Amino acid sequence: MPCETLVMIPPMLCDAQIFEPQFRELGQDHAIMFAPTSKGERMEEIASQILSWAPSKFAVAGMGMGGMVAMEIMRRAPERVTRIALISTSPQPDTPEMASAREPQIIAARAGRWADVLQHEIHSTWMSPQIDKVALVRMLTRMGNALGPEAYVRQARAMQRRKDQQPVLRKITQPALVVCGRHDGMYPVKRHEFMAELIPYATLSVVEEAGYLPTVEAPEAVNAAMREWMKAPLMLRR
Question: Most CB contacts within 10 A, which of 106, 114, 131, 217?
Fold first, then answer.
């Protein structure tokens, strides 16, 4: 198995806890670096920060917003990325309607209605029916409170301003993994199938017992898929 550093990038309002099962499992064989997304108001800015911290060559895995940052990293520095995993995410930008819908939550966060914002952002109906939703909501609430409203506003702005990354996906020749949960209500399976079709060498893994947070909803399945992805032979870019 190649000894590559794996850089893991989280979704909005999440810290390293969202990848704890992967740290425990994959950390047995690989150096793993957690890369937060809470310091920039644009995907380009966040990607540049991570590139300044990361090794000269690295594997990258991102979930949700983290997947979008991973695609921006691929756009900016493809020669540094050895492989890429995209989990519960999308290459498409916010539509004008989606961008506008973020404004009331940004206003609420700035006005001190943080509990209301967290309740709006945490979607238990998009979780697998097989998991302990109460425990997962508590974990997400703890992470959200730890990051706080200022980080949320920066992340929401970055989401509003993100670019269409579909052209980037078409150029990927590194080993690529696309992971989604069967019960994901934010980015459904069909979107991930389309995303995997855009990438020449992608493997799609649909996790049957997961929703929009498969790394913690069904960690064994995600860990198995990521292990196979990390074993895949490296390919030279065209």
Answer: 217
Helix H or strand E encompassing 174: none
Q: Count the domains in the chain.
A: 1
Residue 181, Ramachandran bin (φ over 0: left; ψ between -120 and 50: alpha; else beta): beta
- CB count, 10 Å around CB of 76? 16
What is the rounded distance in angstroms from the CA atom of residue 174 to the CA atom of residue 193?
A: 18
pLDDT value of position 235:
63
Residue 24's alpha-carbon distances to 4, 8, 29, in angstroms, are 16, 13, 10
Q: What range does the domain containing 172 cover?
A: 1-238
| Pairing mode, strands 58-63 and 81-87 | parallel
CATH of the domain at 238: 3.40.50.1820
How large is the average pLDDT for residues 31-40?
Answer: 95
Distances (CA, A) of 58 to 33, 109, 134: 10, 35, 36
